[in-house]
């Protein structure tokens, strides 16, 4: 039942994206979007992603609020860097280690970190759980520390929302 609901949700989401790309709603757009969604899901199936743990709604809400705050603050910081007089601060690639167990939760964290202006994840060492991130401002120890605190907080929030130790059952034990 859960798999069927997930497939329906994916079809609805893909159809919605199709209609949004066309810019107006019509029956023809909806039907053609559904046809494209069916073709994508049938001809290009994604491999199954093991999902462990459970979702904790209050922790998800905390995550969403904190990420929204990071988006606002970092957007202002990046905007200021773009318009302030003088040379741009030095940028660089920083290495951040995370202790996220699930690949799916790691993807959530990487997407959040990439979405926040001022940094982008360049590479993920999946086995060692190391992220290599390009950061716009590494000109001071304060800026570098701010980046590492941000990574640590995003990690803490996604783990609290999706991967608490008491809910974690690796695939070998769950089978």
Automatic annotation (TrEMBL):
<feature type="transmembrane region" description="Helical">
    <location>
        <begin position="63"/>
        <end position="83"/>
    </location>
</feature>
<keyword id="KW-1003">Cell membrane</keyword>
<dbReference type="GO" id="GO:0008324">
    <property type="term" value="F:monoatomic cation transmembrane transporter activity"/>
</dbReference>
<dbReference type="Pfam" id="PF01899">
    <property type="entry name" value="MNHE"/>
</dbReference>
<dbReference type="InterPro" id="IPR002758">
    <property type="entry name" value="Cation_antiport_E"/>
</dbReference>
<keyword id="KW-0472">Membrane</keyword>
<feature type="transmembrane region" description="Helical">
    <location>
        <begin position="31"/>
        <end position="51"/>
    </location>
</feature>
<feature type="transmembrane region" description="Helical">
    <location>
        <begin position="5"/>
        <end position="25"/>
    </location>
</feature>
<keyword id="KW-1133">Transmembrane helix</keyword>
<protein>
    <submittedName>
        <fullName>Cation:proton antiporter</fullName>
    </submittedName>
</protein>
<dbReference type="GO" id="GO:0005886">
    <property type="term" value="C:plasma membrane"/>
</dbReference>
<comment type="similarity">
    <text>Belongs to the CPA3 antiporters (TC 2.A.63) subunit E family.</text>
</comment>
<keyword id="KW-0812">Transmembrane</keyword>
<feature type="transmembrane region" description="Helical">
    <location>
        <begin position="103"/>
        <end position="122"/>
    </location>
</feature>
